[in-house]
Design brief:
With 231 residues, the chain is α/β, with parallel strands linked by helices. It folds into two domains: 157 residues, Rossmann fold; 68 residues, DNA polymerase, domain 1. The protein contains ten helices and six strands, in the order αβαααααβαβαβαββα. It has a six-stranded parallel β-sheet, covered by helices on one side. Strand 4, helix 9 and strand 5 form a beta-alpha-beta unit. Helix 2 packs across helix 5. The chain starts with a helix and ends with a helix.
Length: 231
């Protein structure tokens, strides 16, 4: 009983919560997404983009990606839904045998869960992809809330993805720490009034120089301790 009260007292003092982007932040899979989009956009839909140019468009909802590349009105909503799912099917087929958490994240999840820190996912991925990861890696238990592309009107860098996750967890935005890998995601966290830990899986630290909300840059979670973030 005393130990339980002590844990409650610790929780009352930090009141922190963690929000994780997924692709490039929980799993190192962005190269597979870029390849999937490159094949769809260039081979199937006729865009004249280089692999690097496609890589720079890898943020936001799938429909937003298509509209940035081709302009609004080029495809119907039904066509965009079709190509969105087709791209994700190809991505999942290619990535499944490589699917794993970034080093140290399983232990980080377990430590945060044991400390009763609320955690959620705030991702521009569609539920089809989020469940692909959570089901295959058995991660559902760790998250109080999941905010996907289907749950927001405007994706990152708009803050709605993260503010909605905070609301669903019952935590103030200022007490949330976001884990991100992309500049637009860090910008969304900053727009939400949240601090951010940045994974350098796809971008280098100097690409984030315009943001003032970054706690630290990490390559993986092996050297990151929960207690250092909540103290």
């Amino acid at each position: 009983m005393l130990q339980h009260k002590h844990k409650q007292a610790i929780m009352a003092t930090h009141k922190k919560a963690f929000i994780f982007d997924m692709n490039g932040t929980m799993i190192d899979d962005m190269a597979y997404h870029v390849k999937g989009w490159y094949n769809i956009l260039t081979d199937d839909l006729g865009a004249t983009l280089s692999f690097e140019e496609v890589s720079r468009e890898m943020y936001g909802k799938n429909s937003e990606v298509m509209e940035r590349v081709f302009g609004k009105g080029k495809f119907t909503a039904e066509e965009m839904d079709f190509w969105s799912i087709e791209k994700e099917k190809r991505y999942q087929d290619a990535y499944l045998t490589h699917l794993k958490l970034i080093d140290g994240l399983q232990q980080f999840f377990e430590a945060a869960y044991a400390a009763e820190i609320p955690m959620s996912i705030g991702s521009a991925a569609i539920p089809f992809n989020i469940n692909f990861v959570l089901d295959n890696l058995h991660l559902h238990q760790y998250f109080k809330a999941i905010v996907s592309a289907d749950d927001v009107i405007i994706s990152k860098p708009h803050p709605e993805t993260f503010t909605k996750a905070a609301e669903l967890m019952g935590v103030e935005a200022e007490n949330c720490i976001v884990f991100e890998d992309a500049p637009k995601g860090v910008e969304a966290a900053q727009n939400a009034g949240m601090k951010c830990v940045v994974l350098t899986t796809m971008h280098e630290a100097d690409e984030f120089s315009q943001y003032s909300n970054i706690i630290c840059f990490i390559k993986n979670y092996t050297q990151l301790r929960v207690e250092d973030l909540i103290s």
